[in-house]
């Protein structure tokens, strides 16, 4: 019988490959073109909620990239209080599979990939939907994905002003200091969401709430603003969509999938305030050229992305190709 081996890539292995910000954004933008052309297969995400007193849950995402002939499954935990143990709130593993034989090709640490592909989705959305020349970024949240949101957005817009906040003073201060050192510019640390978001050109909400709370209000959406909300628990004023000119999603089916508590716009969905008729487009249609994105400087645009399994597979596959070329990682016998 033929021996089967698969490659294991740890976080340290991935760090050694020299993957750039542009590489990650490019992989995500490329797979969104595939979405727009219908060249992907992906299943609804599912949740595994252990009997652990509400400490956290797991998300299971599955996707296939037809043009690249790779399939994948990601399991990612979402445990808000992990900071108390010095651990990331989201830790993930990605299994890449050969769709012709079912053979496992690689097991990849998906923690950085989850954070980076989320930030890349925010950045690609802004590239097509934010007002050109946007100069002020307001960002709520300081978890792992927040870093990639700010760094990748700034790589596109080179903001004049960056404001950040989070629930815990120590986390927002440390976040601001790290960003300032990375970006070589002042990052303003704010005490609350209102002072962070009000008057910003690009608004990102990546909070970690336990219960819905209206941190993002209609009055913050000035003409020409671009808003990206994706906290697990909604932080939006219930009637906020009244102030939005265009609403774009990553995928309408995924917007409705999973536990009805989870998702930035789930209260609007549950109350019937958001329906398919209210969605302007999926982001893949815009990136692939099927629909225009921003059409004038006055539009208030909201982009809700819940996370596409295909972006995980795309970034992991790009990393695997780098690892194969460099013979990085550890080869494990499968059978």
Provide structural commentary.
The protein is of the alpha/beta class. It is 32% helix and 23% strand. The protein contains ten helices and 15 strands. It has an eight-stranded parallel sheet. α2 (21-37) packs across α3, α2 packs across α10 and α3 (111-129) packs across α10 (309-326). The longest helix has 19 residues, at 111-129.
Spatial order of strands in the largest sheet: 9-8-7-10-11-14-12-13
End-to-end Cα distance, whole Å, is 9 Å
CA-based gyration radius: 19 Å
Number of strands: 15
CATH superfamily of the largest domain: NAD(P)-binding Rossmann-like Domain
Low-pLDDT stretches are none
Tally of individual helices = 10
Number of domain modules: 2
Share in helix: 25-40%
CATH topology of the largest domain: Rossmann fold
Averaging pLDDT over every residue, what do you get?
A: 94
**H/E order of the elements?**
EHHEEEEEHEHEHEHEEEHHEHEHE
CATH class of the largest domain: Alpha Beta
Structural class: alpha/beta
What fraction of residues sit in β-strands? 15-25%
Q: Judging from the principal axes of the Cα atoms, what is the shape?
A: globular
* Main β sheet profile: 8 strands, parallel
Q: Which second-level CATH architecture of the largest domain applies?
A: 3-Layer(aba) Sandwich
Protein name: Ornithine cyclodeaminase
Pfam families: OCD_Mu_crystall (PF02423)
